[in-house]
Design goal:
Elements: E1 4-9, E2 22-26, H1 27-34, E3 40-41, H2 45-50, H3 52-76, E4 80-85, E5 92-97, H4 99-108, E6 118-119, E7 124-126, E8 129-137, E9 140-150, E10 163-164, E11 170-171, H5 177-193
């Protein structure tokens, strides 16, 4: 059985092609998706001719969408976006900021971005600033600065950093060193007195 098959697209399919394209796809994709939903059929010269007008309209639509996206990316590049989230006193978020959250905030700011176009390098779980990559097409991309801000004033504690020994055990610092030093001096003095 053939692993791939050539089909004529009767409708535009994202990440595959537009109406009238002859594409080479895996048989499972063709059998389970393209053919049952009527997005493709077996190619013939007659069908290609019938789809010529529909293809011309699809090419105009693709060109218009491309120019809109180019315009949006030029405006989007370098933008700053602020998202307010609940967090603890150390700035650790109770949830995380997702691609969906960033795409929704960008839509509110007037940019038509879908969540899959927002590229995050990792999970955002702290109140901080982040550089976010937005890629709408292979050659259209922008970088924005994201400010994740706490929903309240954070308490600034003057806490010491924790230290660990070579085995990974926490080194407990005694804040009452002078009192302990006095106790050691008394212990050493007591045996000497005997």
């Amino acid at each position: 059985m053939a692993k791939s098959i050539k089909l004529l697209l009767t409708e535009s399919v994202d990440n595959l092609g537009i109406v009238g394209d002859i594409v080479n796809v895996k048989t499972g994709y063709a059998r389970n998706y393209l053919l049952p939903f009527g997005y493709a059929t077996t190619p013939s010269d007659e069908l290609v001719g019938q789809l010529a007008e529909k293809r011309a309209q699809a090419e105009k639509d693709v060109a218009a969408r491309r120019s809109m996206r180019e315009d949006m990316i030029s405006k989007l590049d370098g933008q700053e976006l602020t998202i307010i989230r609940a967090c603890n006193n150390q700035g650790q978020l109770y949830g995380s900021v997702t691609q969906q959250d960033i795409a929704s905030a960008l839509k509110e700011a007037g940019f038509a971005v879908v969540p899959r176009e927002v590229r995050l390098p990792g999970t955002i779980k702290r109140a901080d600033t982040f550089d976010v990559h937005v890629k709408v097409e292979s050659d259209l991309e922008a970088h924005i600065k994201l400010w994740v801000v706490a929903d309240r004033e954070l308490e600034s504690e003057e806490s010491e950093e924790m230290e660990f020994d070579n085995e990974g055990e926490l080194i407990i610092k005694d804040t009452k060193k002078p009192a302990k030093a006095d106790a050691k001096a008394e212990e050493q003095a007591a045996p000497a007195a005997e």
